[in-house]
Amino acid sequence: MSTSDAVAVRFAQVGDVPAICGIVNHYIAESSSNFRTEPYSVEEWADQLAAAADRFPYLVAEVGGTVAGVAYASPWRPKQAYAWTAESTVYVSPAHQGLGLGSLLYAELLKRLEQQGFRSVMAQITQPNPGSEALHERFGFTLLGSIRDAGYKHGAWHGVGIWQKELAPLADPPAPTAPVER
Ligand SMILES: CC(C)(COP(=O)(O)OP(=O)(O)OC[C@H]1O[C@@H](n2cnc3c(N)ncnc32)[C@H](O)[C@@H]1OP(=O)(O)O)[C@@H](O)C(=O)NCCC(=O)NCCS
């Protein structure tokens, strides 16, 4: 990234999906940060975006007009009482790591989830992953505990840390979460 490359965080659009898949599929193939072993197809990701983007923010970071990172939220669990608890996910392309894009994406994602009325954001971080742990700590997530040897990938067992950030004081009863506002 050169100093003249404009950086922007914006909502993901369907035209971004091939670039998003390229980034996420890289980490599926090369790391254990994502427990999938099969790559996403563009259609699968486009369906996911279409199904969820009104309820959860799906954001991309662009550098010089190229999609270099993605962050989005999803339900932590499907049962109704979990409606105020989201899960966050973030990936930055290998060429753009450590330059602040993950932080830009998370600042916007967490701000929007708070505005929508979510109470908590959860993250699951495969161990070891010092970069992701540093990012989550920076944004106020705390490690609640770990699932020991939660998954086996690339010839090794990996634990998964369960991280939580509380966004808002408790309301009783809570108002329904608001849809994504563009
Ligand atoms: C984790 C990830 C999203 C972080 O994004 P990023 O743009 O590289 O992070 P930033 O440049 O915004 O840095 C955020 C913080 O993490 C720290 N950090 C980043 N990479 C690090 C590393 N490899 N080791 C230790 N700390 C690291 C930075 O110093 C910074 O901390 P600071 O604010 O206290 O200085 C990115 O590295 C990535 O995509 N990794 C591979 C996929 C992945 O693991 N995704 C998360 C799945 S849970």
Explained architecture:
The protein has 182 residues and is an alpha+beta fold. It has one domain: Gcn5-related N-acetyltransferase (GNAT) (Aminopeptidase, 3-Layer(aba) Sandwich), CATH 3.40.630.30. 27% of the residues lie in helices and 32% in strands. It has helices spanning 17-30, 42-52, 101-116, 130-138, and strands spanning 7-11, 58-63, 66-75, 85-92, 120-126, 142-153, 156-166. The protein has a 7-stranded mixed sheet, sandwiched between helices. β2 and β3 form a beta hairpin. The two termini are 28 Å apart. The mean pLDDT is 97. Coenzyme A (COA) binds at residues 27, 33, 90-92, 97-103, 123, 125, 129-132, 134-135, 138.
Please state the overall shape, judged from the principal axes of the Cα atoms: globular
The percentage helix is: 25-40%
Number of strands: 7
Content of β-strand: 25-35%
Secondary structure tally, helices: 4
Alpha carbon gyration radius: 16 Å
For the record, the count of structural domains works out to 1
What's the architecture in CATH terms? 3-Layer(aba) Sandwich
